[in-house]
Amino acid sequence: MGVAELLLVGVVILLGLCGVLVPGVPGSWLVWAAVLWWALKDPQPVSWGVLVGATAALLLSQVVRWALPPRRLRASGATPRMAVYAGTGALLGFLLLPVLGAIPGFMAGIYLHERLRLGRHAEAMASLRTAMRSGGSSVLTELFTCLLIAGAWLGATIWG
Predict the structure, then answer these.
(1) 58 pLDDT band (50/70/90 cuts)?
(2) Fewer beta carbons within 10 Å, N or C terminal of the chain?
């Protein structure tokens, strides 16, 4: 697989990661489709392993999301700007503290947004709890899974 095709797969994965944060966009399936395309174009054992792992992780993520309460983020006051803060926090957390840093990064992004918007710690914490209860945990589950898949793809591409 050439460099241009690998970059295109990376762009589709990045669009899928952004799509997780946008309601109505099948972000996780974009990530999976990009990994599928990569595995079909570069049929090696490592690429098939990443595809099987991505499929299993996404199926497990869907089961967990179905067990969580339904998304009602708009009703809780979540805005697109909050999604940007949360997604950026998750990505930075994922990079700074590999893998597990996405969870505190996501929550720190929401907290930072609410702290800047509301101005007080107590109100920002209350808003963070409300956002996580009303669907933030579902978004976090899907985003974390997609970040794991993106990391596996990147690792397999670089070292595989």
Answers:
(1) very high
(2) C
